[in-house]
Amino acid sequence: MNVVRLLHIVWFFLALAIAGLFVIEGKPAQTLVWGFSAVVAATFFWRSMENDPTET
Q1: pTM for the structure as a whole
Q2: What confidence score (pLDDT) does residue 27 get?
């Protein structure tokens, strides 16, 4: 597995965890920001999967 892909996965789960903490605290603006960050991380991960020259 590529290190960049691993960082995208870590970023995704970290963003979800932080968004979850803001849900518990009742702060919707921060929840949306971190939720969007998780979506961006997932998008970057899937794009890196599509552009992988090592896979056939």
Answers
A1: 0.77
A2: 92
